[in-house]
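Sharing a chain and its predicted structure for anyone who wants a worked example. Both blocks are below, sequence first, tokens second.
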Amino acid sequence: MRQFAPTPRFLCLLSAALLALSPAAWAERDALVDQAAAQLRANQPSAAFDLLSPHEAQRAGDVDFDLALGVAANQTAHYTRAIIALERAEQNAPDNARIKTELATAYFAVRDTSRAKAMLASAKAKGVPTEVAGTIDQFMREIDRIDINQAPSRFNHAGYISFGLGYDNNASKGPNDKLIPVPIFNTTLWMQPGVQATESSYYSLNGGFSGRYSLTPEWSWVGSVDYGLNNNTKELAKPFDAQNLSLATGPMWRKERHEVSLLASYNQQWQGGSTAAHANGLVGSWVYRFDGFRQLSTYVQYSNNRYDQNANANASRTVLGTTYSHMLRDGLFGFVGAYAGKEKPASKLPVLQHLGNDIYGLRAGVQYNLRPDLGLYASLNYEDRSFDAIHPTFLQVRHDQQTSLNLGVNWLPAPQWRISPAINWQDSDSNLPLFRVKHKGFSVTARREF
């Protein structure tokens, strides 16, 4: 939801309530929380937030720490961080009226007024002093007034457009070997120049738009559209020019640290100016945020893939995966993930069952911010594909192992702009020579978000 600054009158009302509750707010059990509390009392919330924030990953769940962090986050407009910390504190200390009132502040700041009012009512029910109860009543009337006069926008959206220039030493994704043995014919085939690995420079253009319409504070409808093209400059590589269109839409549910979505998806691909493939399916995901730094994402994806130029390759694909990401306070961000899946041929013909395969993959990445506008990143991906039956041409069961490495820089020269030079390597190894593919390249991409 869109964030906004609470009104001055609101802050006055809330300050009165919080000051009345502050003597028993927290026990200040250690030097860290005690120092932060002293900074808050001295009207230095930024100092308190900077002091506490690096320790959240280790101290999350400590009521005194979470309350102090939540107060500091509220007073420095880090409302999402405040909600995460204060929801932890409220769960562990459900009778603490100070925590409930602070949490109401954060809810109100992100325009979740229904939960703000519910939290204030719960705080009042805990038996606060009469003067505090009166102030809470005024606060709730202030929320009602805001709801009437400043109805929040239910529709949030974002978009981007990017342009890139690059070079790939195997733009055709052709096999490394020029001579391919074919056991069934007891011969060796020479790969034609248009099929061999073909180098080329290229340019790319990408754009996308996503939106979310809030139905209730917890339920919303989301959707996205993305388009991209990649055109090669060398004539031999022109047949491998590619375009891609992706659409997705469906419901999303958010509550506390959970986010669940179920999206219907459609993808259309073109190659060399002609339609090449299309797919439709479903993607279900669950995101759990431990705190402001750690997140676990789990997803299951089903797609029905159809190939316009080769109906024999039609297949269904199901993948289940999970990713854990962690933001460290020294500017380092990292993630690790794993996935597994199955691809089944659409045809039941025995001669085509060799196209089915089991998929296993691992991925990891890291980004380090040298300064707020400059960061370095690296990602590593590995995928293993074990096929189901003997290939009728090569008389072996196919087994592929693909590894890719990407290294790059993210530079933010101006708000909403990002320049990203990058280099990449990909090695697709296989026991069948036709499917051994290596390529490397570099690119520079400029992206504008809006």
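Comments welcome. The longest strand covers residues 374-390.
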